[in-house]
């Protein structure tokens, strides 16, 4: 039987903690505290009991002492004994639950009640530390359900009525207000629309479309009220398809089993059979064999063999790594992902919002036969009449002198703007607008892959402005650093235009890049990489469209500052500062954590073997066993704490 793990949601430095068990119950902070109550009760009673023993209090004898430690044992011991019994009934006898049960009950049998409580308490605390590091299970995609459009304004009986998208039929007309998500796939009935499709395609530039163009559920209407004719039922819509992809990818995602559980399958039966051997085998070789003496020695052997140093050092090692990562703005959703990160050799990344800032900025201003400042004053006067995101980027330009004012501005569908500024006719738009007005455009503009705004003044080409998404400051150094830590295979997948994707990849020195991809295309690319068992794939993304790939990759990494809630929910690792260079730091922290965990394993196991041999030979007493056990645990804890002081 597998252990139930406590999962925490939205673990962030100094944040409130919420958790859910995998049985589906939701709890707040009060319940989170309740999980620690049994350990607190046991610890308090143990300390009081040891104090009473130390001062040899007269009434603390016989059955009172046994009852006291028995009650102290129950809060932490009963759940473990119960799990061990359930596992036995299912045919899985040799679990760590079984060993912990017989070792601690054995301690009670030989009269070492404080040791029995202390050992189980160590185990319980170790489990709590491990549980606190584990986040929401991948099967929980509640966040994606939350971002689905919850209502649709459908035209029925001469008026628009708000209904659930699930009950809207193909062919019906729906209305979408400014800022609302399109609830269903359809065809645009309005003359034009400006849509933010980043959630679906990752396209960095808002999509301006004309009448009868296809629109997709999940897109956001940016400018004016629009009407759409529904072409697909909700369950067949683009947003529902992404939901299905996340569900399937999550189901395929393997979960790493904790080392202690795998090790216990070998360690536990060996120790149990050795203890049985210590009890009975001497009968055939010792003349003055006394069963009670050898049983006593076997129980000491079991107490010594209790893997509490292993049990506590492993989760504490990971806990130290998780804490160190958190201090560096990196959130691992569980200890298993620290392990998985050490094995990554292939890194796939999104473009917009991951290595770029996801906002438009002026990249270049080219004025022809005009001063740049005056040229921009004409352009800005026109763009003040527009609400397009590109217009907003242009209006951020810092100009000198008085602002110009545009008059008689009209929009030419799919081409741009026409108006009068300072008595001059100004055209602002794309090449189609220039061609329609017989204005020659320099051939140099054809090689520009970014968004470009062409300007003509009084029927003469006056220049252009290149608008582009900026690279993040640490994007280039990230790629260089990834190569240095051994990540040689780096790939960029983007929903943005392939030409833009290729240019960004070239700037970053990424050889393999593909653009113009839908979420299912990205997923297919990662699945192809995963078919090679040697590839351990990490994916970095930030949008809803990245959720399926984040779930399908060996390690999903989300940008937590600007990233979507769905990407953050689905990912295994969250970069809270949105800096791609933190991925390199995450890899280094993971490797350091793994190294310290293995140091603790070797230390704990090595000492155990030595003391076990001494215990079997009668050379180790119970006190020496306790000292060795607690001492090793202390050394392991101190070693794990080193992670908090390391720098990467």
Please provide a written account of the structure.
The protein is an alpha+beta fold and 648 residues long. Among the domains are: 170-232, Calcium-transporting ATPase, cytoplasmic transduction domain A; 330-356 and 472-592, 3-Layer(aba) Sandwich (Rossmann fold), CATH 3.40.50; 357-471, Calcium-transporting ATPase, cytoplasmic domain N (3-Layer(aba) Sandwich), CATH 3.40.1110.10. It contains 22 helices and 25 strands. The strands form 5 sheets. The chain has a 7-stranded mixed beta sheet, sandwiched between helices. The protein has a 6-stranded antiparallel beta sheet with strand order 5-4-6-12-7-10, with no helix packed on it. It has a 6-stranded antiparallel beta sheet with strand order 15-20-19-18-17-16. A hairpin with an 8-residue loop joins strand 1 (6-9) and strand 2. Helix 2 packs antiparallel against helix 5 (113-133), helix 3 runs antiparallel to helix 4 and helix 4 (96-109) runs antiparallel to helix 5. Residues 1-29, 133-146 and 249-257 have low confidence and may be disordered. One of its GO terms (cellular component) is plasma membrane. GO terms for molecular function: ATP binding; ATP hydrolysis activity; cadmium ion transmembrane transporter activity; metal ion binding; P-type zinc transporter activity. It catalyses: Zn(2+)(in) + ATP + H2O = Zn(2+)(out) + ADP + phosphate + H(+).
Topology summary:
Elements: E1 6-9, E2 18-21, E3 26-27, H1 29-34, H2 37-54, H3 62-89, H4 96-109, H5 113-133, H6 142-147, E4 152-156, E5 159-163, E6 173-176, E7 186-188, E8 192-196, H7 198-201, E9 207-210, E10 214-215, E11 220-221, E12 226-230, H8 238-252, H9 259-280, H10 291-305, H11 308-327, E13 330-332, H12 335-342, E14 346-349, E15 356-367, H13 372-383, H14 389-394, E16 406-412, E17 416-421, E18 424-429, H15 431-436, E19 451-457, E20 460-471, H16 475-484, E21 489-493, H17 498-508, E22 512-514, H18 519-530, E23 537-541, H19 547-552, E24 555-559, H20 565-570, E25 573-575, H21 582-616, H22 622-645
Parallel strand pairs: 14-21, 14-23, 21-22, 23-24, 24-25
Antiparallel strand pairs: 1-2, 2-3, 4-5, 4-6, 6-12, 7-10, 7-12, 8-9, 8-11, 13-25, 15-20, 16-17, 17-18, 18-19, 19-20
Transmembrane segments: 36-57, 63-81, 93-111, 117-134, 266-286, 298-319, 596-616, 622-641
Domain P-type ATPase A: 148-247
Protein name: P-type Zn(2+) transporter
